Amino acid sequence: MESRLPFGDALRAALGPPRRSRRLASSPRSRVWHVELPGTAAVVKQLVDGPGAVERYAREVAALRIAGRAAPPVVPAVLATDPAERVVVLEHLGHRRPAPDWIVGHAGALARLHATARPGDAGDLPRWQGPTAADAGSFLRLAESLEVPVPDGVPGELDDLVARLGRAPGDALLHGDPCPGNDLHTDAGIRFIDFEQASLGSGLMELAYFRIGFPTCWCVTSASEPLLERAERAYREQWYASTGSHVPDGLADACAGWLLRGDALVQRAGRDGTDHLARIPHEDWTWGTATARQRLVHRLGAVGRMAAGYAPLAGLGLLSGAVRRRMLARWPSLRPVPAASGSGGVYRSGGVRGRRGCRCGAGDAGVRVRR
Questions:
Q1: CB neighbours of 91 closer than 8 A, spacing ≥ 6?
Q2: What residues are paired with 30 via a beta bridge?
């Protein structure tokens, strides 16, 4: 693999010559270096050539530009870009070990990130895409394959859910993968990195990450109810402080949407149109800190609780509970996903990964472990 530091004449003219470049760990989709520049340290990130590389680079740069409006900052400063080489140069930020209740600060910072978007940004990033009718059908077939009766009203509930999520209002800047490991805990606050999947949409779709267990992430965690309530309160208070408006209702819908998405059971490279929910009755596989069945059991429990007392998803809530019980009875060795306290993702120093329980975004292949 080519490892030459991509620091051409334009970057040298803007920033000066780099010294002491050091390759850092990153996902297979990018190459990252720590460099010394005149007067400062920086991180150089290059998007690897391949399908979608140009779009991912455009998303990253656009999202960093939008998020750069936040004061105090919520992303590293962009020092320079080289679109021809798909390179962005960012300020280097130190990182400290997160507190046990890190999700509270993470949630507040996420609200500030979401609030940086403006109506005029509509053409710079794509709209967030929710689950489809095919996803809903796959979930219903999963229940049937596990011999769990589907209440009569549930197919209609899912049709309505897909429609509601498809027209969910909001123009928040969505990170696309707001997981532990894509956040830097600095002395001056949390900064987010890695915006290759950024989009615009309802912030509820990422507020749901805390209850549903970071669905796009190598790290899946389960926080206690008091900690979840603190995190969601921090998000809502910060959103109001940043926008002057209240967070709309719809968190139960957002959580249910993630339940339907079989693609959120595999790493990004495996999101290729395969019906991953259809695999669940026949095989299990490890991705990061949990297996696919563990992830699904956690999501089923979260949706069952969120749907209680919420009429539009009353049937889905009952079905989720029934499928969860069937899975635990059929595979009694399934354990809960890791607790959020003392877990979380990687810690980095401008891209350097170190263990604090898992390695979000590392691109590790899923490993089948059970049949």
A1: 40, 41, 42, 43, 76, 77, 79
A2: 47
